[in-house]
């Protein structure tokens, strides 16, 4: 896809996110997104198929940054795995509790009785994509003698529980507001510290 098409796709997805946050999933239409983005309705249907396809694309775009950072760090064989985890943690926590992620989670709940496609898309592009990368990172920490455990997948799930806990659901239900940067950094460091205490050699 060329630069122009990439810019148009970005404009469409930004418009969709803005409307999703402003109005919610059910009240956001493809036509409104097209108007907000200055695109044609036909373009939206050609590129995304339908409303669910558009919002599934938003899910993938929202999860892409953290997954790409993790993959980049995993490609760097010399990087300290626990330092990488400390670097990635705040980004992951900011991602899953940010306005876009919370709006997408609310959309997935709103779609349960319609097409039930957004929930699986969230799981596939989010947790199912990121947790194996975290497990690989933790496996490298074990290989270097920094941690000791049998199942990297279980330790990755423990790390995610320590990092995120119930924050995302509390954000999605409106029980708490956006997390301040210092709170995100503190929680991320505590998650790494928890893993070190539980599994450190």
UniProtKB/TrEMBL annotation:
Residue ranges of the TM segments: none
GO molecular function: DNA-binding transcription factor activity; transcription cis-regulatory region binding
Domain HTH tetR-type: 6-66
InterPro entries cross-referenced by the UniProt entry: Homeodomain-like_sf (IPR009057), HTH-type_TetR-like_transc_reg (IPR050109), HTH_TetR (IPR001647), TetR_C_Proteobacteria (IPR039536)
Source species, domain of life: Bacteria
DNA-binding region: 29-48
Keywords: DNA-binding
Keyword DNA-binding: yes
Record-given protein name: TetR/AcrR family transcriptional regulator
UniProt source species: Oceaniradius stylonematis
